[in-house]
TrEMBL record:
Record-linked PANTHER family: SPHINGOSINE KINASE, SPHINGOSINE KINASE RELATED PROTEIN
Organism: Catenisphaera adipataccumulans
Domain of life of the organism encoding this protein: Bacteria
Protein name (record): YegS/Rv2252/BmrU family lipid kinase
Alphabetized UniProt keyword annotations: ATP-binding, Kinase, Lipid biosynthesis, Lipid metabolism, Nucleotide-binding, Phospholipid biosynthesis, Phospholipid metabolism, Transferase
Amino acid sequence: MKEVFLINPHTDAKKLYALMEEIKKNFKGRQVIIEKTKAPKHAEYIAKKYALFENEPVHLYVCGGDGLLHETINGLIDARSEVHVSVLPLGTANDFVKTFRPWTTADFLNLANYKNPIAMDCDVMSVNGEYAINTVSFGFDVYVAQYANHMKSRLPVQGIIPYYTGMLQTLRRPLGQEYRMQIDDQRMPAAIYDFVVFCNGKYYGGGYQPCPDAMINDGVIDVCLISGLKKRDIVYFAKAYEKGEHISHTDRVTIKQAHIIHMDTNNETIYGNLDGEVRAFKNPTIELKSHAIHLWLPNVGE
Ligand SMILES: Nc1ncnc2c1ncn2[C@@H]1O[C@H](COP(=O)(O)OP(=O)(O)OP(=O)(O)O)[C@@H](O)[C@H]1O
């Protein structure tokens, strides 16, 4: 078994130091492979190498945030069945692992918890050829992510500040835009939505829960459509959205389950947020690929 640590070297230095100490403590005298990314998207290339071209089992620890995980899983689609992935959440938001609450980030970072890991095959969603493991969204939060990513790339700021700034900037735009969609075999009437979110995991955007009942291995995409929000309601709404309590507002919120969604943008470009990464699409199709990633989760009971 190859034990491979795939690391984003731009991770917070203290967190990286603690990870190295944890590796030394748990793998004393045993060989591990450290793979550090050299640039954005390098993780996908590294993952593909282990997914396809090795001939022994691999335990791949993804050491970074949701962005690194997103890139890694794109290299693991149709991987050999002996490639297992564990997530060591060292990013800022680490939304993917929040699905497993009450397990904590510390539970995921404790390497002793992987001696007898819990196996779980995880679904993913494809969007015109790119895969997302946690959420795919359109609308309000995409603009927030776009502003935040832009700010992070130009200024030495991290953490939540870029997201709050992005939210204030986004509130200067009109809320809502028109969508035409087919959800499985149901053609929806054209409608204006403020948020359109497709969930595999439960949390996104730093801790919001569009679909509190989503589960990463249930073979369906959970859909959350939100309409009719007023800007003055956003703060109140955000609190309910964080707790997943917005779903009781059935006049504004529609929750569904689906396997495939076609969005008709009339060949115009639309921006979508895949696990926190913003991408441009025309007429995107979001489709579930069941049990595509073989996870090894921490055995917290040990
Ligand atoms: N060597 C590298 N140099 C520059 N950028 C990198 C490198 N390796 C990875 N990246 C980029 O860093 C971005 C953010 O990394 P990561 O997901 O680890 O942390 P994060 O954004 O803080 O996490 P979260 O999304 O959970 O808040 C990724 O989108 C990835 O493309």
